[in-house]
Amino acid sequence: MKHVKYLILGAGPAGLAFACRLKQKGESSFFVLEKEAEAGGLCRSMEVDGAPLDIGGGHFLDVRRPAVDEFLFGFMPEEEWDRYERNSKIAFDGGYIDHPFEANIWQMTPEKQQEYLDSIACAGNSRKEEMPEEFVDWIYWKLGKKIAEEYMLPYNRKMFGANLNRLGTYWLEKLPNVSYEETKLSCENRRPYGQQPGHAQFFYPKKYGFGEVWLRMQRELGDKIRLEADVYFMELLPDGRKRIKCRDGSVYEAEQVITTVPWAEWEAIEGMPEELRGEMGKLCYSSVQIEYVSEHMDTDAQWIYYPQEEISYHRILVRHNFCPGSKGYWTETNMERIGPDTGRFRYENQYAYPLNTVEKPEIMDRLLKWARTEGIYGLGRWGEHEHYNSDLVVELAMKLADELTAAGHEAG
User: Fold this and answer.
1) Mean pLDDT computed over 183-211
2) Cis peptide before 77, with omega less than 30 degrees from 0?
3) Which of residues 142, 160, 189 is at a domain's end?
4) Which residues lie below 8 Å from residue 138, measured CB to CB, with a gap of 6+?
């Protein structure tokens, strides 16, 4: 039985960043358990058709968090990355417009521009009406009938499932925020106004997939990480230690546990209040399939979004526009919408996106508060059940490692 101060569950960006930060701070009593045969989580890459393909659907290093970039450049130097301006489009009305939709209707014909402007002007938000509580009503209220019915609602049904009203509205502030006045101004001046989406500028490796930086962090950890270790059971011991069991029979004990794995993966957490166990089962997520298509797309876009419900996938990533020396593109499709086998390379991600359901905030608030009192810390996309990008996950991991090591030094 191995005993450590910090046991880190999962070697995706969150677990790796936390562990490597501990090492930087001089902490040696830690260990990482990872279910898969290599580290990286949703940010892993594989070589497909002679070039990297990101099996999690495509991830990039945003430039907006310099401290995160500097931290990761310590494992994979900046000169090994290219920097890009984000170019994302929406397939619409037989052609393409730039993303986000409401900032770029100026690319349509004057007649269509006016139709959309009139629709946005009639939206509840433009008319200063009270914000509704249900997801579908919120989309109409925020964007108007035409954008709601022709883009936002069909796209979100494809990505998250048919019952959109199970989703809350608390997370929609993450969407690009473009007002009616800004949309009108963009039509008058023929350029976008308002808040732009994330990854407006991003880094991507010159010679590798995004998974390379995480593999280098795995190597940095040396014998402090074990792969193919599938955890399923946690027991809270009377003295405050936590006992973790893997399916192969191995057992680990720790003073503090940092979990980045989906809460749904636990068969049991002995010592957890019964009401929390029940609520943990209500956390929802979506699964996606990544499929590689070798045909060349004549476009300079990196992302293309598809709201058309007759098309199974909801977005594609054109890899030759950010991954030098590659060709083709890959699609991302909700597992509920996949069609028959095409013979192409496919990869399934059971845990792709945490769903922001109506009840999720209260569930996670209670769960994470209880866990902290027991020396268990949920971290990252799955530990916190939040749709976080990798750069934010790394930032949160660094902060948590700094917090816990500082508290340990004060206690010492």
Assistant:
1) 89
2) no
3) 189
4) 131, 132, 169, 172
